């Protein structure tokens, strides 16, 4: 599995012959790429804030998967063909090509774009694996936590039963967890690799990633902190 970070919360995941793009937002300082540079099979959306769905309309050939509230919104507002959407919900697992994608809740808000009078349903994260979560045996699994606070379901459900090997964790503070809470999340999840995201895009979420590395070393000693440059790929 190849994980490429395009800044903020935008990840491109290659698994077998299947490519998935999570939270397309290319107007951030960590990427030099344009949406037209990518051709994913699927686009996954964690929630409806503008910095997570801004470029969804650029991927007309892809299938968009998110909560039904959010797929309905992007179909209406971003000219996404409704037939190219899949609405699913918290706890559900989809088989998308070679990938199994399980949606899990995140602790966040979910106003649509910048309008907080309308909700896009429960914010989410995604657990992406090369095997169904009910199957026994070895699997390779990546957890994109979405925009979230620290939550005990990371320890009691996601880490215990979905067993991710690597996690992309928001670490910018202010709107999500900061480096300290993200390191605790890495420990609770039991991952081998902790990758920070959702930082440095705007002044309120600028951080020193060395703090993230130090907190992971202290609070999640079994995990390795992996700080990627924008558009850099990590092979899991």
From TrEMBL:
Q: Which Pfam families match?
A: Lactamase_B_3 (PF13483)
Q: Which domain of life is it from?
A: Archaea
SUPFAM superfamilies from the xrefs?
Metallo-hydrolase/oxidoreductase (SSF56281)
Key words, A-Z: Hydrolase
Tell me the SMART domains matching this sequence: Lactamase_B (SM00849)
From the UniProt record, which GO molecular function terms apply?
hydrolase activity
- Tell me yes or no: is Transport among this UniProt entry's keywords: no
Taking every annotated instance into account, which residue ranges of this chain make up the domain Metallo-beta-lactamase? 7-198
Q: Which PANTHER family match?
A: UPF0173 METAL-DEPENDENT HYDROLASE MJ1163, UPF0173 METAL-DEPENDENT HYDROLASE MJ1163-RELATED
Family to which the UniProt record says this protein belongs: Belongs to the UPF0173 family.
Q: What is this protein called?
A: UPF0173 metal-dependent hydrolase SAMN05216226_103215
- Species whose genome carries this gene: Halovenus aranensis
